[in-house]
Amino acid sequence: MKFFDRQLEHLISLIVLVFAVYWASRAEDVLSGSLYGLDTAFWFWLAIAIPIAHQVFVWITWRAEFLYSTITRTFGDRGFIYYSVVFMLLLIARPISITFLAISNQGSLQTDPRVLNSIALVLLVPILYLFYSLVKYFGLKRALGIDHFDPGYREKPLVRKGIFKYVNNSMYIFGLLILWLPGLLLASKAALLAALFGHVYIWVHYFTVELPDMRVIYESKVADSS
By 3-state DSSP, what share of the chain in percent is helix, strand and coil, each rounded to 5? Predict the structure, then answer.
């Protein structure tokens, strides 16, 4: 594995996705409204920029650490802590930015609120089960990618308990559903479009960063069909 392995596909996919959401955002009422004196367009592109910054950050740090031990050589044992702080700040910023976007664009989706609220309630079930399984069986450190930092974690078996017993890629399938909740609860076209971007883009990360890394880190434990 090389530092830029699969990153041409990453870049091409990102360009296509950004162009797609730009084109979709030009539809009627998608970018209507404002918040704190800033147009919805500002909040929309902020909600697009944050997941890009997050996932590019993860790619750079994971590959730099796994291939060259850059983070630990620079910061020692504190390296993973520093990385985790930045990771969590960017992760938390994703639903927060979409919430601000949804408030700015509230009511742009002309659909019965009861329908939207019901959908949000249904989505909440797997979200909560995922977070329960993440805490009980998976562990926060593994979720953050400590296996790129600590070789000891590479000998541990893959987690097959809780929600992970039924769906291998639960964090990508169900975890990102949280991004859809603000748009549904506030009937915001722009927030739903930003959530769609984030949910699709996380799969770009999976196929161009995480899966190639896992195949090297865990070798035979990760099948080609994962």
Answer: 75, 0, 20
Q: What angle do CA 137, 139, 142 make, to 5 degrees?
A: 120
Which domain does 148 fall in, by range? 7-221
Q: How many domains does the chain contain in total?
A: 1
Burial of 173 (C-beta count, 10 Å sphere; 0-12/13-18/19+)? middle
140: confidence class by pLDDT, cuts 50, 70, 90: confident
Asked if residue 58 belongs to a domain, the reply is yes
- DSSP at 164: G
Taking residues 136-155, what's their average pLDDT?
87
Q: Are the CB atoms for 101 and 182 separated by under 8 Å? A: yes
Name 17's Cβ contacts closer than 8 Å, sequence gap at least 6: 197, 200, 201, 204
* pLDDT in the model for residue 222: 56
Asked if residue 25 lies in contact with residue 105, where contact means CB atoms within 8 angstroms, the answer is no
Q: Does any domain span residue 106?
A: yes
In a domain, 80, yes or no: yes
Mean pLDDT of 154-179: 88
| Position 102 in a domain | yes
Residue 35 main-chain phi, psi, to 5 deg: -150, 130
Opening angle at CA 222, ends 225 and 57, nearest 5: 100
Q: Residue 225 — pLDDT band, cuts 50, 70, 90? A: very low
Task: Supply the pTM of this predicted model.
Answer: 0.92
Measured CA to CA, the distance from residue 113 to residue 126 in angstroms comes to 21
**What CA–CA distance (Å, rounded) separates 176 from 20?**
19
